[in-house]
Task: structure prediction
Amino acid sequence: MSTNSSLDAAALVRPLRLRTNLLWSLYGVWYRHVRVYCKTLLANATPPVLEPLFFFVAIAYGLGGFVPTSGFDGLPYRSYVAAGMVVSSAMFTGVFETMYGTFVRLVYQKTYAAMLGTHLRIHEMFVGELLFAASKGAVFATVVLLVTMLLGAQPTAWCVLVPLVGFATAYLFACLGLIITSYVKMINNFSFFATGVITPLFYFSGTFFPIRGRSALLDVISVLVPLTAPIELSRALFKAQFTWETLMHLGILFAYGIVLHIFALRRMTARVLR
Amino acid sequence: MHNAPVYAAPALVVARGLTRKFGDLTAVDAVDFDIRPNECVGFLGPNGAGKTTLMRLIYSAIHKTAGELSVFGLTPMQQRKRINARIGVVFQENNLDEELSAAESLEVHALYCGLDHRTARGRIAELLDWLALTPKARSSFRELSGGMVRRLMIARALLNSPELLILDEPTTGLDPQVRHTIWASLRELKRQGMTILLTTHYMEEAQQLSDRVMIMDRGRIVVSGPPNQLIEQHLERYVLQASGLAEAPAVAGDIRHERAGDADYFYSNAEQPLQALYETLPTPYALLRHANLEDVFLKFTGRGLHE
Result:
């Protein structure tokens, strides 16, 4: 077993130069999640790729046959749905990562307990986590974009910005996921939020059909629902048309992001330190 | 409060009236102590005595409720980053990344500690070698024995070359060979100048490693000092313990007798009267021995269950 030679031990206690700055700390946390995620890439990444694929085929091809050829909102229906689905896949990626993923790390794997023994600040742990969720969102939004492109959606050159929209969307919803997780005591409680909050967003934020133009109240609600802004931004990229409304949606996305970010970090700090 | 002797080197950790409550439960109750550089201090106590909570206060994992605490002259929580850059923690429960191999698990932790990739690789190779884990570098944590996992946890705590190493029950549940190897490694680190805090409920561990022990019970430090001094100060030199006696024999005035459950304890500073008593006992379950730290521990924390 251990040789414990004094020469070796003397080397063990020599001072090391440590990078304790914010960027390196965030990178450290992000890197951990990437490493662990890549270990189980095939099992992890298959559902988020296949599910939108099935959905797209069923909706854009199946239901799309009954939609007027002019499509909606100035987009052919396949492009209309594709623009919604790149964003909704980023939403699911972000929110599920910080619901189930974070909960498992918090309660079962004790990942944060281990991080608490290092110099990492609590907010560095969770911003690193949010950045990982957002990176995954960017990747899956891109994958969905490519798959829907192969299946007949017609993106414009502006769609090179889809990863950015995916990143921002996933970040926003990962903040929401952290807030939910901070309240949850048992992993089963998540299904309530998944069904009660996330699924309605998916169906009623204009992913498959235009919400607006039915009543004034619905119009206001639809603008304020957090998934609407990124979907509208994605549509703007698919249409290559940017108006003052695009700017407003960008503003809404950032406003939501900042508020949820602050709240999420406060909640998780309280949860981890208790 | 114990009266700490005055030493030249400034204390690394200073606690005064340090208190932590969880609701109605006072986990750490107004404790006072100083930890000096290169000391190894063992916190001994039954489960629930507040040892782990105390360690968590030192490495800024929870807020204190009241009192004062300084580590390296800095304030925990407020200066968490500066303090913890100089601390290594070996946790009671295994929180290694299950999906990763031993070396990968150390690598991700090295980055949290602030090592760059290259320094991390070199450091990991050294630590795995020192703890005889090199052949297991690529093994997943499921393929490791309990002793290997524990050594890996120690390797992880040493990645940032800490000045203060905190070990929360480092050898609980391990076989004697592994425990002795780990103790040898810890003594080596101490020889190299490291300051070590450990919690344990193994008396032997405390006695083997600690310059001083602090016996905790219900959140308080009930007694503290060097292990041998504690035994000398608080107990007679010899103990005769016997179990299964129908009735305790009458003893002379220089023998102190205690009964707990079905066990009898006879204490004396002289061996001879206990030896004489031993020969008269009608039970095979009797043992004459030197008083040890466990006797001190039980004297201060009681023989009943702490549940």
Residues 1-7 of chain A have pLDDT under 50 and may be disordered. The longest helix of chain A spans residues 77-108. Chain A has one domain: 22-272. Chain A is about 75% helix and 0% strand.
